[in-house]
Design a protein that fits this description.
Length: about 250
C-alpha cells in the first residue's frame, strides 16, 4: 500500500510539472526574446539590449554604421541626379527658346554683316576690347524682329538685344541714319552692354561717359539724329549727367 501511494504521489508530481511547463509555453514571449541579435563572430544569440557578445566580446552592432553610410550615399546620389536633371531641363528650355528667336527672324545680308564688322573694328581700335569680343563671338545678328521683340515692341530703336540669348536685332535705322562707322560703333557699344547683362540705364550712362574715346563728340556729331536721340534717352535715364551750367548742360563737356 505505501508503494502504491508513493507511485501515485510521483505521478501527481509529474502531472503538476507538465501542467506548469505547458502553462509557461502559453505565456507570450517577452520583447527581449522577440528582438534578438546574433553575434557575427561566434553565432551566439543575444537580447537586443546587449551591445557586446558575452562569449567572444565582439560588438553586436558593428554593421549599423555601414547601413548609415550606405543610406547617406544614396541620399548624395539622389541629390546629384536631381541636379543633373534640373540642369539638363534648363539647358533644353534655353536652347529651344534660342532657336525660336532665330527661326522667327531674318538673318543679315552679307553686305550688312560687313557694315557691322567695320563698326566692331572701330571699337577694337578704340580699345573697347571686352565689348568688341562680345560683339564678335557672343552675338547672333538678325535683320528683323523675332517673336519676343514683336511682343515687347521697339518702335524707335536702332537695335535690340535679347539677353541671355545673345540675339542682336539691327533695324533698318541702324544702317540708314548713322552718318559713319563711328556712330554705328556707338550703337553697338550700347548693345554690347546688354549682351553682358546690363540694363538700359547702365548702358546709356556708359556710352555717354565713354563717347570721346570713340571720337563721338558734340563738335562733330551734335547735329546728327543718332546724337540727338542718344542724348534725349540718356538725359531721361541719367539726368544727373546734365545738371551743369544752366542746369541742362552736359557735365562731361
Amino acid at each position: 500500500m505505501p508503494d502504491v501511494q508513493i507511485q501515485e504521489a510521483r505521478a501527481f508530481d509529474w502531472q503538476r510539472r507538465g501542467a506548469a511547463a505547458d502553462t509557461s509555453h502559453m505565456e507570450p514571449p517577452s520583447p527581449a526574446h522577440m528582438n534578438s541579435v546574433k553575434c557575427s563572430g561566434c553565432g551566439l544569440v543575444h537580447f537586443a539590449t546587449n551591445d557586446v557578445c558575452r562569449r567572444c566580446g565582439t560588438g553586436l552592432f558593428t554593421e549599423l554604421p555601414q547601413a548609415h553610410i550606405q543610406s547617406a550615399g544614396d541620399g548624395t546620389r539622389g541629390f546629384w541626379q536631381w541636379l543633373l536633371w534640373a540642369l539638363g531641363t534648363t539647358v533644353t528650355i534655353l536652347t529651344i527658346a534660342y532657336l525660336s528667336l532665330l527661326v522667327t527672324s531674318d538673318a543679315l545680308t552679307s553686305d550688312e554683316r560687313t557694315i557691322v564688322m567695320d563698326a566692331v573694328a572701330v571699337l577694337e581700335h578704340a580699345n573697347f576690347s571686352k565689348e568688341a569680343r562680345a560683339l564678335r563671338h557672343l552675338a547672333s545678328y538678325r535683320g528683323s524682329d523675332n517673336w519676343w521683340n514683336r511682343y515687347v515692341g521697339h518702335p524707335t530703336a536702332y537695335a535690340a538685344t535679347n539677353f541671355p540669348f545673345g540675339v542682336v536685332t539691327l533695324y533698318p535705322a541702324f544702317f540708314s541714319f548713322p552718318v559713319d562707322d563711328v556712330e554705328r560703333a556707338t550703337i553697338l557699344l550700347h548693345e554690347s552692354h546688354h549682351l553682358l547683362g546690363e540694363g538700359e540705364e547702365q548702358a546709356l550712362q556708359y556710352v555717354w561717359i565713354e563717347k570721346e574715346r570713340l571720337g563721338w563728340t558734340a563738335a562733330r556729331y551734335s547735329r546728327t539724329r543718332v546724337w540727338r536721340n542718344t542724348r534725349e534717352w540718356t538725359e531721361g535715364a541719367v539726368p544727373t549727367l546734365f545738371t551743369c551750367g544752366n542746369g541742362r548742360s552736359d557735365c562731361l563737356e
